[in-house]
Amino acid sequence: MKIYLFGGCFNPPHIGHVEIVNRFINECDKLLIVPSNFSPNKNMNSEISVEHRMEMCRITFLDISKKIVVSDIEMQLSIPSYTFNTVKWILKKYPKSDLHIIIGEDQGQALSSWYKINELYKLAKFICISRSNYILDRRYKIKYIDDFDYNISSTFIRKL
Known about the structure:
alpha/beta, single chain
């Protein structure tokens, strides 16, 4: 089973997130949307709870395809929400899966700082989506999608 993991704060989910899901939904058997409970690499100071962000993701993504699952796995795991722990949980639930992690270029440039990145890199393949003003960390073999140019971010939306 080919599984794509698309995690993030989703505070709020936006058209860029929807376009990423639309781009990859036909390449996989299951696409997991995983709102982070508490990300060590992001400023999570927000009045928006993970439960509310989960509901926003359900509203945003579930009508796109029956392949999509909005998962509360990071609410069940210990804080902080490390992708490594999420991946281990997914591989335990789907042991024979071919797992791909979709990340934005902001995270692609910071991969070396991720918790247990070398072990994580052995467990899953990475797909990095281009974003303006970032430089990808090329130490890791990553499928890079450079023709995606939605210049929008949740941070920008919150500032509005």
